[in-house]
Design brief:
125 residues, alpha+beta, Aspartate Aminotransferase, domain 1, 6 strands, 23% strand
């Protein structure tokens, strides 16, 4: 889904008060915790997290899931261990209502992704 907004606050305000907003806010907190140097903004009508090199992460609430855009997840987690139980698509991770973030290793995945990003490694598709 696309939201016609200009700021992160407007984006969050535009979300329905349901499980998608809760899931998105949980992922957002993990990004803030593991990648505190990234600035939150809006790009392509979704939340973006960027620094002077560009945008390593984006979040968006879709109709049936929350998308966590990260580029090529296999460049970050080549074995798939960190993303076990998560629906991995081309360039994004999809979180459905049934995904419990506390039962995943997303914190480790985000930490590893930001470490690679800050080291200048290519994590894009």
């Amino acid at each position: 889904m696309q939201y016609d907004v200009n700021t992160p606050a407007e984006y969050l305000e535009a979300l329905d008060e349901d499980w998608r907003k809760e899931k998105l806010l949980e992922l957002r907190e993990l990004i803030f915790e593991k990648a505190p140097g990234l600035k939150e903004g809006i790009r392509y009508k979704m939340l973006s997290y960027e620094d002077d090199r560009g945008v390593p992460f984006q979040l968006n609430a879709q109709r049936g899931y929350v998308s966590f855009y990260v580029g090529d997840a296999s460049k970050i987690d080549s074995t798939g261990e960190l993303l076990e139980g998560i629906n991995v698509g081309k360039g994004c991770l999809r979180f459905k209502k049934s995904n419990v973030l506390a039962n995943t290793r997303m914190d480790e995945f985000i930490q590893k992704a930001i470490e690679l990003w800050q080291a200048g490694e290519d994590i894009d598709c």
